[in-house]
Amino acid sequence: MTQDLLPVTRIPRTGLPAHAVVVGDPARAAAVAALLDGAEEVSYHREYRVFSGSWKGVPVVVASHGVGAPGAILLFQELADAGVRTFLRFGTAGAMKPGIGDGDLVVAEAAVRDDGVTHQLLPPEYPAVSAPEAVLALQRAAREAGAPHHRGVVWTRAAFQPGLLPLFSYEGAGLAAIEMELSALLVTASLRGLVAGGVLVIDGANADELVDEQATGGYDPHREIVAAGVERGAVVSLEALRLLAEAEARGAQA
């Protein structure tokens, strides 16, 4: 019955696991879900493709949110409505400073809220911060997987391509990477008392410069080095969810 499904994503109102990995690409959601035991496709409506299964005994959701924060935040909100309480965004990003290479992982400590949607929901001074336990779980999972990784603040920006308007530059501000959806997740989680964080695979240099083919050789996120990073990042995301779930279980028993 349609009343048992949420209106935008068409996911069930109840019955989903409490821990989720969210990604942009529906095909990536399927690839991550293929790592799970007993994976099943729950729904596929618009850009929102949702799977459930288990990772090392922990029930998890894997879901896609598409490109851009305005659409992604709808998935985050409806997953939370359906009972998800822990979110890890696993995506790709452009490096913002030297020393962060293609295929490396960036564990986000916080995000600049230039996402195009959250400023319509609450004042710009409100922060977009990852849960400390999510940062630590992702860092531990990356370290144990032997994945090259970094920690830092990322820039969530609505526009992928530069336009005619001058942009405020965050160069020199120490930002690690630029992507398009994370701040919307972090704000949603903070407002609703949820746990959230993010880990990003670097697929190129500073995104504002990617269209300058003469300077950068052109943007190509489909290279082997990026694919290897995505494979590592999928395992790191799922393993971090397991660590978080086990820590929650220990806390509940204490």
Q: Sketch the major β-sheet.
A: 5 strands, mixed, barrel
What shape does the CA trace take?
Answer: globular
Strand residue content:
25-35%
Poorly predicted ranges: none
Account of the protein in words:
By secondary structure, this protein is an alpha/beta fold. 31% of the residues lie in helices and 29% in strands. The protein contains six helices and ten strands. The chain has helices spanning 26-33, 69-81, 132-145, 182-192, 213-216, 224-253; strands at residues 19-23, 37-45, 48-55, 58-64, 86-95, 105-114, 128-129, 149-157, 177-179, 195-204. It has a five-stranded mixed β-barrel with strand order 5-9-8-6-10. Strand 3 (48-55) and strand 4 (58-64) form a beta hairpin. Helix 2 (69-81) runs parallel beside helix 4 (182-192) and helix 3 (132-145) packs across helix 6. The longest helix is centred in the last third of the chain and has 30 residues, at 224-253. It starts with 18 loop residues before the first strand and ends with a helix. The relative contact order is 0.19.
SSE topology sketch:
Elements: E1 19-23, H1 26-33, E2 37-45, E3 48-55, E4 58-64, H2 69-81, E5 86-95, E6 105-114, E7 128-129, H3 132-145, E8 149-157, E9 177-179, H4 182-192, E10 195-204, H5 213-216, H6 224-253
Parallel strand pairs: 1-4, 1-5, 5-10, 6-8, 8-9
Antiparallel strand pairs: 2-3, 3-4, 5-9, 6-7, 6-10
